[in-house]
Amino acid sequence: MIAEEKKVQQQQQTNCNELRSIPLRSNVFTERFFGSFNWEEFACGCGAAFVNIAITYPIYKMIFRQMLHGVPIASAFSQLRHEGLMFLYRGMLPPLAQKTISLSIMFGVFDGTRRYLVDDYRMNPYKAKIVAGITAGTVETALLPFERVQTLLADSKYHQYFENTQRAFRYVFSHHGFHELYRGIVPVLWRNGPSNALFFILREEACIRLPQRSSISTRAAQEFIAGAVIGASISTLFYPLNVIKVAMQSNMGHPTESMWTSTLKIYKERGNSIMYFYRGCGFNTARSFISWGIMNAAYENLKNLMTWDSL
Fold it and tell me: Which parts of 141-258 fold into alpha helices (H)?
């Protein structure tokens, strides 16, 4: 009897040891998924965004005024000149923080997700790029509060209420709650995911099909032009979603309107013409051309530098 009990206990112990030796499915998924991410992709995206924002923020501010008020570029420039240099870089901290983190997520999450889907699930490369781009864009949406505060700081009607980014965050959160920081999230989701997927597909096609340059200067110029053309085209395509987002975020404390309601309101306010959704688009295309050209060239050069240092 005692011998049988010992035999049962030994069998139970053996079964327990076997179960412990089998890794949990969730642990396997976590290790494989996060193991696909490369910190260099995050670092290069962050550095590229920093260089870009430092150069292009004043241009963004003129475009913002055109989006918000539907005025020509001369009027937007006159507004900024009248306000003075003191207010020119006002509100730069939110886009600087948001863009550096956003582009870091964009490149890092895309690369890690795509490699995981291709390596572990043998997914078609193009399908993997689409899923990875939408995933990266959705994760980026968590940074919407930066865009929200940036909108308030760039709007002249709020100059007397907010002295800086910190006070704007504190005021919005304490008076209107956390949900107010995510006003306008629907057009941002529609913008981020599809635009990311399209950007990476076109960017990688350009890398494959364009000739390989041996000279550093000609290679950098080609990277700039490729990023500029792709980025400007995508930015122009999705420009109306930015107009809707700015219109939704220019209000504070009022009930949040749906994306469709805001779209109809803008359409009626601007002469029942779809063309007015593209007011400021020409200048935005020029800014995007410069911005994405800088980011793509900076990203590629930073990546080459890190690769060279690791050899």
Answer: 144-154, 165-176, 185-209, 216-237, 239-249
As a whole number of angstroms, the distance between CA 45 and CA 37 comes to 13
Residue pair 104/143 in contact (Cβ under 8 Å)? The answer is no
CA distance 135 to 231: 19
CA distances, 189 to each of 141, 185, 194, 245 (Å): 7, 6, 9, 10
Nearest Cα residue to 144 out of 190, 181, 95: 181
Residue type, position 207, single letter: C
Calculate the CA 251 to chain-centre distance. 23
User: Which contacts qualify for 113-118: CB closer than 8 Å, 24 or more apart?
Assistant: 113/36, 114/200, 115/36, 116/32, 116/33, 116/36
For the stretch 96-125, pLDDT in tens is 888 899 999 999 999 999 999 998 888 999
The Cβ of residue 180 has, within 10 Å, a number of other Cβ atoms equal to 19
Does an H or E element contain 213, and which? none
Structural Rg of the chain based on CA atoms: 24
Q: Point out the residues of the chain with pLDDT beneath 50.
A: 8, 18-19, 21-22, 24
pLDDT digits (tens, 9 = 90+) for 221-270: 999 999 999 999 999 999 999 999 988 988 888 888 899 999 999 888 88
Give the C-alpha distances (Å, rounded to integers) separating 158 from 61, 105, 162, 168, 193. 15, 30, 6, 10, 30
Contacts with 103 (C-beta within 8 Å, 6 or more apart), sequence order: 45, 46, 48, 49, 295
Place of tokens 């900076």: 298
pLDDT score for 221: 92
* Contact call for residues 75 and 63 (beta carbons, < 8 A): no
Helix, strand, coil shares, percent, the chain, to 5: 85, 0, 15
